[in-house]
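Aim 2, interim progress: modelling of the zinc ion-bound target.
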Amino acid sequence: MKAKAKTAAEQPVLVVDSEVVRLIRQHARSSGKTEVCGVLIGQDRDHRVEVAACIEGQNADEAGAHVTFTQDTWEHIYAVKDKKYPNERIVGWYHSHPGFGIFLSDHDTFIHRNFFSSPGQVAWVFDPQSDEEGCFGWVGGRIERLTRIAIADRRGGEPAEASGKPEPVVSADSAHAPALSRPEEQDAIPVRIRRLPAEDSSGPDDSSLEQLVFKVFFALSALALGFALAFFLFPRVVLVPVVMNPATGQLIDARTGEVIAEPRDPNAGSTAGNAGANAGGSAATSTQHPNAGQPDPAKSGQPPATDPNGKKGDNGKPK
Ligand SMILES: [Zn+2]
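Predicted structure of the complex, ligand included:
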């Protein structure tokens, strides 16, 4: 605990101008997945490192996973420094780790030990893909990631009302509102696109065939149940083979031999009609009809049954 507290106390305080942070980010993002590097310009006093500017490492060998400060790189850096920052010092260097996070590789520590070995010199690392950044510096004889880093705004302290610049209307209306909704859509849409093909490629071969078989089976079952219900519930015509007795006109069931129907007497209807018309609606109408189902005396050749009303005479007259 004591050693750790002492080590933390020895870390330098780093103060970086916000413009330098912006320029490093801009430089790193400008080259995509290729590493970039440069040097930090400023002052180093009493364990306090102030970074006021930076110089891009032109002509640096940025092939592969790490940067290298070549002779051309240093010549360009010193040329710019002598011209623009003659009274400043080189207080460190920066480079980018596009997509692989904030740390110092063996190659990076090699560069730091050989070119930036002064106790006040630091190594700034920025990942343009994750937007992470961090800084490493000398603590005793070791290189540590620094914990006390401050961003200074050189123009801080200006009166806020002095700018006199109106806020652009375009950015408020058309840029702000879509900018809030677009990241959500961009987050959501790729997830949907990824999930759908994944389910489609594995699902349909098995499940859709199972579903089809199930649907066909279900439809056939429903159809069979419907036919069964209709067979028992709805009235249906029963065909019975019959023969007709040519002598009597009776209908006889061919299987049982029973007489199932008597021939209809054609005279009965006309007789009743005549009787009703002639006799002015006597009881003949009601008495004739119940006997219609019985054997007709005229056709069977038997003597006619006695007529209680004595209508026999009336029947004989028209014939
Ligand atoms: Zn590196």
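Residues 169-233 form the longest helix (65 residues). DSSP finds nine helices and eleven strands in the chain.
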